[in-house]
């Protein structure tokens, strides 16, 4: 089961949101492009706009109790360890 917790609180994430958060958290110093995140989530099985990542990020930010996903303008997204 794919589950994420903040403290003792279970976060209700979709599979895509969970995989996105997992990818960002595994390498917090790395800035990921949308294409890299699509590959990590869909493993090459996605054909469409790379803007789907923006939607997942937006939804994930709403569900997380703190702001830990940083937008790196012109590049992509990064997990912000300092937010924890």
Note down, in words, how this protein is organized:
With 84 residues, the chain is an alpha+beta fold. Helix content is 39%, strand content 17%. It is built from three helices and four strands; from the N terminus they run E-E-H-H-H-E-E. The strands form two sheets. The protein has a two-stranded antiparallel sheet with strand order 1-2. Strands 3-4 form a two-stranded antiparallel sheet. Strand 1 and strand 2 form a beta hairpin.
Uncertain stretches of 5 or more adjacent residues: none
- Global outline: globular
Radius of gyration, whole Å:
12 Å
Structural class: alpha+beta
**Overall pLDDT level:** 93
Helix percentage range: 25-40%
Main β-sheet: number of strands, strand sense, barrel status?
A: 2 strands, antiparallel
Q: What is the number of beta strands?
A: 4
Please provide a brief summary of the model.
The protein has helices at 15-26, 34-42, 52-63, and strands at 4-6, 9-11, 69-72, 76-79. It is α+β, with helices and mostly antiparallel strands.
